[in-house]
Design goal:
Layout: E1 7-17, E2 29-40, E3 45-49, H1 56-63, E4 71-76, E5 79-80, H2 86-93, E6 96-99, H3 113-123, H4 130-143, H5 159-171, E7 177-181, H6 189-206, E8 209-214, H7 217-223, E9 226-231, E10 234-240, H8 241-246, H9 251-258, H10 299-303, E11 308-312, E12 315-318
Parallel strand pairs: 3-8, 3-9, 6-7, 7-8
Antiparallel strand pairs: 1-2, 1-4, 4-5, 9-10, 10-12, 11-12
Helix pairs in contact: 3-4, 3-5, 4-5, 5-6
């Protein structure tokens, strides 16, 4: 595939097999990611939102080949990367990096910051010797960590500083795509805005593309060009952040948007409270996966899965309220 996009995902699936509950019984599947397709242009930030357990992080790790996909294709710069051998996959990892959610568990407590950030340079054979220290120092400066702290260990830093170290580690190889897996959810609110603004500045400086995974729509809306809404393993709506904010189409997206706080105390917003809990990904509902909780569910929603359709220009959704033309 060579459509000019940096990343193209086609019908991607990732299932996990569970252990048998009986000796000869069948093994159940967790349908974590179940038929996801989207594109990312160069220099774009795609926000990926949804409730916990909907498959966002699994999707990000599968794109990076940290998890092998069950089915589907992933194209990076036109190349199918789903069947790459280890040598070629190692080269690809310099182009695609990840920032993890937890800045405490994602950094090796036994290594200094210099080793944490610089090890990738040695692994990929990009620089050696004193050049590593110089490159690490320069990158730490860019993320707001004093280079004098290169010899310090992770426990000597705050949560926000640790996440900046994680960002430096992701950037040191000069990648083209970074998957940010809820990079601010574990941080204090006072620090979240600083990290989000830092990611925005680094994107412009290094000409990066992001997949910004979060459950907080207000965070994603602030940094994204487009937003994909995920529910129970599927993307159910995709459009620009402005269109999603102004006119969400899917009932699930409407419920998410109703939960976003407004700054104007005089502006009234009707909160949509969803009934029930998210169904199990082991046994997802038939038809539309959202129908057990949907306030607008119809008979057809129980029987048939809605088709992915472009309802308005560059505004896609899966919902029987908008029949495919």
């Amino acid at each position: 595939m060579n459509n000019g996009n940096l990343l193209s995902v086609r019908d991607l699936k990732k299932y996990f097999l569970l252990n048998r509950t009986t000796l000869f019984g069948p093994r159940e599947r967790v349908y974590a990611v179940d038929g996801v397709s989207f594109d990312i242009e160069r220099g774009e930030t795609l926000g990926l939102v949804g409730e916990s357990g909907c498959g966002k992080s699994t999707l990000g790790r599968t794109i990076l080949q940290l998890l092998k996909p069950t089915a589907g294709k992933i194209f990076f710069e036109g190349q199918d990367i789903t069947e790459l051998k280890s040598a070629r996959l190692k080269k690809l990892r310099a182009e695609m990096q990840i920032i993890f959610q937890d800045p405490y568990s994602s950094l090796n407590p036994r290594l200094t910051v210099e080793h944490i950030v610089g090890d990738a340079l040695k692994t990929h054979g990009l620089v050696s010797g004193s050049e590593v220290a110089d490159r690490v120092a320069g990158m730490l400066d860019k993320v707001g960590i004093h280079r004098e702290k290169m010899k310090c260990f992770p426990h000597e830093f705050s949560g926000g500083q640790r996440q900046r170290i994680g960002i430096a580690r992701a950037l040191i190889l000069n990648p083209k795509l970074i998957i940010c897996d809820e990079p601010v959810s574990a941080l204090d609110v006072s620090i979240q805005a600083q990290v989000i603004n830092l990611l925005g500045d680094l994107k412009a400086e290094f000409h990066l593309s992001y997949i910004m995974i979060a459950h907080d729509l207000s965070v994603v809306n602030h940094v994204s060009n487009r937003i994909a809404v995920m529910y129970l393993g599927k993307i159910i709506e995709l459009t620009s952040n402005k269109k999603l904010l102004a006119k969400p189409l899917h009932p699930y997206t409407q419920a998410l948007m109703s939960a976003v706080p407004v700054l104007d105390p005089d502006q009234k917003k009707k909160r949509i409270i969803l009934k029930g809990d998210v169904p199990s990904p082991i046994n997802p509902p038939s038809g539309c996966r959202f129908h057990p909780r949907c306030p607008k569910a119809m008979d057809i929603c129980f029987r048939n899965e809605p088709l992915w359709a472009e309802i308005e220009p560059n505004h896609f959704t899966m919902c029987h309220l908008y029949p495919k033309k």
